[in-house]
Automatic annotation (TrEMBL):
Keywords: Membrane, Transmembrane, Transmembrane helix. This is QueT transporter family protein. The chain crosses the membrane at residues 12-37, 57-77, 98-121, 127-153. Gene3D superfamilies: 1.10.1760.20. The keyword Disulfide bond does not apply. The keyword Repressor does not apply. It comes from Anaerococcus martiniensis. It holds the Pfam family QueT.
Amino acid sequence: MIQKNSFTSDTNFLVRSAVVAALYAVLTLVVPMPQYGPIQFRFSEILVLLAFYNRKYIPGLVLGCAIANLFSPMAWFDVIFGTLSSYIAFRLMQKTDNLFIASLFPVLLVSVPALGTYFLLDSSGAFITMLFSFMASEFVMVSIIGVIIFKILENNKAFMRKLIEF
């Protein structure tokens, strides 16, 4: 027999995960900034910092990333390797107590799909430029803008309580 509290918490988890996935995907697809290619300013990437605060956000972030990557020019590759590298970054973010340090994992792991792209498409020196472009744009969105936003949000006790208790 299913207990009411278990059902409620499972439903709450599914709804929150679906909202996070939808937010990530929609922000990637509708914000008029470069979302795919060598320079990516995905505003949705700020949401990856949710994984730092609570691991329960990881499934929604992974699903949102996979959905957003379906629209990439290299969809199959980005869905598999981009999503996998994001998942690894989220798990590593859980192992640190510092928001800024946690924000660096997505920046560093963005190179995984870039490496694959290099092996598939490019054998010239353009790879290094592309890799640094990926990493720089991820750094700007997550480690600068994202960290600033979440540091401001940390001052709102009610928001943080909701964020952490999931």
